[in-house]
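Model: Ready when you are.
Researcher: Fold this.
Model:
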Amino acid sequence: MIEQSFRSPKVKAIFLPKCGFIFLCLTGCLIIFILWWMDNVEVQKTADPPFISQLLPINMSFCAFRPISLEETLEENKILKSIAWPQTPTITSDYTFKNTTDPWCSKFAILPKKGEEKWRIGDQLEVRIVMNDFKCLPKTSGGDVLLASVKNRHLKAGVSGKVVDHLNGNYTAVFPLVWEGKAEIEVILVHPGEAVTVLKRLNGENADRVYFNSTFRSGSVTETTVCNVCLRPTTQPVCNYTDIRTGEPWFCLKPKSLSCNTRIEHSKGGYLHPLTNQENKLFKKKINLRVPVQSSGSSSVTVYQQNKDKPTVTSSMFRPSGFYYKGVWKSLGTIQVHQFDTPSIVQCLRGKVVHLYGDSTMRQWFEYLTKELPDLKEFTLHIDKGTGPFMSLDYKNNILVTYRCHGPPIRFKPISVSELRYIANELDNIKGGSNTVVAFTIWAHLGTFPMKIYIRRLMSIRSAVLRLLLRAPDTLVVIRNGNPQALSTSISIFNSDWYSLQCNKVLRAVFKGMNVHLVDAWEMVLAHQLPHNLHPEPPIIKNMINVLLSYTCPQTQTK
């Protein structure tokens, strides 16, 4: 931009008539008003693309949603319909807690095998689950959140089951029998249906129960304001940080004395607990939150070798992605999972670039690889260990591994806004190719929002994946889904397993039919003998990395 210099002419004193003086006063008032107006609508100074409304949607609705096409809207509605949870009991001011699901009064029973008496590898085991209330009377509605698995702790074996809701208080869990020996059934009530009713309400009415902060600084002046994708209507001016490329919305309340352009840091703000006293009773450990359901008879079966003339698994049976045997994850799909030690990891990744994107559960992968490979040295970028970005390089074997967190919402320690990058934008910056591995996850930080926000974020990432595979079809793209975790009352209302389970269904639907691969963290945690944890224990991470590397080097001969 070329600046022009204007030289003012020399004038003597100017005498104006009375009407001229009034005109100058009015002009001055108009200028003052324009300057004030520009400062208060600074929210609209960002160069938004044409498809982003210049009117802030938060003044019209509670949450802002990324604009999508008509075709995507139809797909979104189809996905929402496919994951619709069974109807759950309503919670009114006079509801009775004793009528809610009681896991201690509920029971499960193994259904007898048809035909031959012995259970054999390849059979499908069925378990009937009957849920009762705190008066030990049968429930007449469905919607309880149940997890089921079969394990043998001596063999370090385990496989997840599928739970079918019959909508009347009865459920069926089915499992494939995949090893010889004892198979012990575990059924866990994660949430009663009444708690799901509350979680549904919270994600609609209290989507801002986790809030975020941004720090603004100019010179010696520093201010902090609240940010979110769901900001309640306010008369206070708002800064619009909607991403220009993806259209992902993000807003912050404008600082009182600073410009929107002075934002320097993002951080987790805090948590609001919007439960009533009655609702709080539905999220109690050892009472109705992640409580095992007991068996009315035997809780195990003995499995024998398969008959030679019988197929292992028929098409009508439930088929999980894999199972554990002797602590090793074995696939039930098309991939053969190899076991990688340090030399074979180096051999597999030699000459490759591995880009990891997501939350702290993906950061575990970066930490594992950096620890396992002695020549993979992490650069000291003077970045907080909890936020990143991170980079490790093995110069000798030409291996580069990077990690970067996904864009907001993300509940991290203070992180520079320059490091807040959306996964879709990062994928667009990758050249790709046969020596490039991309892995990402996104789930744990979106559990308090309407599902539409998650669906549209995945659609945005999917578009970027399609562009990446179009320009570089040999690029390997791997997705890690969410996993079950230990739950307390507070964790339940901010990051429930129920919501994570829904997110996993959405993820499969959005990426169905694409040339991408899944590391099924949900089943790998559920089937393992270790306790569930937001950050799975090292033995589980090792198995996840083995799956990742088996996608990367399917022909590698490993131990």
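Researcher: Now this one.
Model:
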Amino acid sequence: MEKNGNNHKLRVCVATCNRADYSKLAPIMFGIKAEPQFFELDVVVLGSHLIDDYGNTYRMIEQDDFDIHTRLHTIVRGEDEAAMVESVGLALVKLPDVLNRLKPDIMIVHGDRFDALALATSAALMNIRILHIEGGEVSGTIDDSIRHAITKLAHYHVCCTRSAEQHLIAMCEDHDRILLAGCPSYDKLLSAKNKDYMSIISTWLGEDVKTRDYIVALQHPVTTDIKHSIKMFELTLDALISFNKRTLVLFPNVDAGSKEMVRVMRKKGIEHHPNFRAVKHVPFDQFIQLVAHAGCMIGNSSCGVREVGAFGTPVINLGTRQTGRETGENVLHVRDADTQDKILHALQLQFGKQYPCSKIYGDGNAVPRILKFLKSIDLKEPLQKKFCFPPVKDNISQDIDHILETQSALAVDLGGTNLRVAIVSMKGEIVKKYTQLNPKTYEDRLALILKMCVEAASEAVNVNCRILGVGISTGGRVNPREGIVLHSTKLIQEWSSVDLRTPISDALHLPVWVDNDGNCAALAERKFGHGKGIENFVTLITGTGIGGGIVHQHELIHGSSFCAAELGHIVVSLDGPECLCGSQGCIEAYASGIALQREAKKLHDDDLLLVEGMSMKEEEIVSAAHLIQAAKLGNTKAESILRTAGTALGLGVVNILHTVNPSLVILSGVLANHYVNAVKDVINRQALASVKTVDVVVSNLADPALLGAASLVLDYTTRRIY
């Protein structure tokens, strides 16, 4: 310290306002206390720490063996906007006397709470240096404005992520006074190895509760839209009651609207419900173990999107309070949680999963960096802070369009004839495509997939594309969770009970997703086509076979045995032609390319196919295209076959409309244009009046199979917005 001109110990004042900021400040306080030769520590406690309704959490500071120099009662009760303003005013009245007595060299302030704004304002006006923890981050509500206001008052900054560091630089802060340290709480999180976590779970949730079989709920009011946040909390509790799992509910913070949220809890009987445990406070060490072993965490606390990622616990982030936060893949965002069903569906999607652990916010070494940074502060430097203009250095900024264009996926399409691999950009552009004949045996096919993927991945570097993963579209029944083809179509031989994910992921060191080609077509429409932004729609592929995918409430439906959306095998006639599946009268037996080819051959064998204007070479194979050409040239028998095929497809669509009630039907594949009018006519004649207004459109995507395989990757790796 002497090399920086400091001849005495650095007197550090740490002010903590609530249970949340103490979890971040405590590791720093322990570090300061452990080096008395360099630092003197004064602890000031204010805010909700001192309120009984919020757990009297100042006691945990005493339990950690810290001497509290001053307790300031600064909260004006009322839990509304006016009370928040009055609380800031009360703190501003009381703090000057405390700071005059303590005369700290530096004050450490955390985060974005209104109490912290009062602390920073007081210190700045009294010429006390301020170290701000967790500046530069982005979230929702008034917290953003408060956080950035404290940044402008602070002299030194400790941030948690590279993005936060860049935001601070862009806000004209001096780069030399910014430390990228990581989140201090991660120092404790990543070293937490409490083997007796079962006793903690039993204490808070009951002795009959198992790991991964309970929920932690923590939801706060959104001060910029209190009415909506109360409604969302009510829907959340309804969904949790319906979900019927043991749930630990923590009381909300002291922000405006918290009183109404507590009323909602009591109105629904949460404190006396057998499935719920409602508590005001859980010690941080125990809270760590509870979220680490939970089946899910739900709410809008920053803890969910920050700390919980260290354990890979599934999180459902509700509403806008954390909008803009960097998150790991364990977080599912439900931005507009406007129905109980939507929240319930999110619980069904997330509960019990285990995600990779995330270290976005820290590596466990924040405190040593912060202590070193404190020691480097030269108290002889001018107190007046300087702002740096221009705000961002040239080598700091990145063009977001460039990033989006270069993020890409390897898409694989396993067809009955060809095997195709493509590099597909975030915008749906096929940058490069490779095509080979699909081998007949499993070994040759897998070897060719690997060879083509390796070649494409190498080429991606040359075309400035960063491959995020591999998506595979294949015929047959697929278990997308495990990446296994369960049963294939007859067009792809030796392709049942095949694990595609493991060998390809091992060879390329990339994540791999696999799904049925019909589902992939629906995903392609959802991301790049007519289905973009549509909540409920159905895609029908009309090609060699008939397939499709169903998107309901923005989610693809797979079914209990991954057999949903086998739309080609909807039976429209009990005594119709035989289908490849072994049944009779399926849509595919009437309207697929194979079915039309079969009928074309019958006409050709009877010399009834060719009409004036048509010719065929002797060795040419009769196909569905010849039947369509004959119908266009006036062949009445060909016209009749196509009319029957269109009617069969239309009846199948009517059945779909009556079953899942989509708002849009998308016809995809080479035969879509030939069937669209026939399908609309059948709907007009046969459908119930309530579904006749459904839109039926032809896909405008050139290659839905490859685009759908790519979307498996791009939708997942670039984070999900539900």
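Researcher: Key takeaway?
Model: The CA atoms of residues 141 and 224 lie 6 Å apart.
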